[in-house]
Design brief:
Helix content is about 35%, strand content about 20%. By secondary structure, it is α/β, with parallel strands linked by helices. It has a single domain, classed as 3-Layer(aba) Sandwich (Rossmann fold). The protein starts with a strand and ends with a strand.
Length: about 130
């Protein structure tokens, strides 16, 4: 299953560590953890899937990061935020959004869905995920 490389874009160290542990337990490989637009850019070429928070160390740059990762590198992006109501920007290239707090089962379902879509399969999105595309 390690073909997908997951980028976690989160500035809260504890949340990032929890996501990292969950993703690794599920058998996926972490290519990096970023806390800002600049650090996310460094990991972009290594990523196939990204879990991106909205509010980061450099402000509410998550939507911009999501669009950048998707359009420039073909990364499958899901926004992970405690403030879903703040998502107003056009996120046509981002796959969807899930709300914090998350749980390991939701992360598993999101990653399974994204992996299926990346393989050209239909996939079933988790009911807790709001789709953009």
């Amino acid at each position: 299953m390690a073909a997908e490389k997951i980028l976690i874009v989160e500035d809260d160290v504890q949340i990032a560590a929890d996501l990292e542990d969950t993703v690794m337990t599920l058998g996926y490989e972490i290519c990096g953890i970023a806390d800002s637009f600049e650090t996310a850019r460094r990991f972009a070429p290594l990523s196939t899937i990204a879990l991106v928070d909205v509010n980061l160390r450099d402000g509410a740059t998550g939507p911009r990061i999501g669009q950048y990762l998707a359009s420039e590198f073909g990364v499958s992006v899901v926004m992970v935020t405690g403030s879903p109501e703040l998502i107003e920007a056009d996120l046509s290239r981002v796959v969807g959004l899930i709300s914090k707090p998350t749980n390991p089962n939701l992360i598993r379902d999101v990653l399974d869905y994204l992996r299926a879509v990346r393989k050209g399969e239909r996939g079933v999105p988790p009911r807790e995920m709001r789709l953009f595309a």
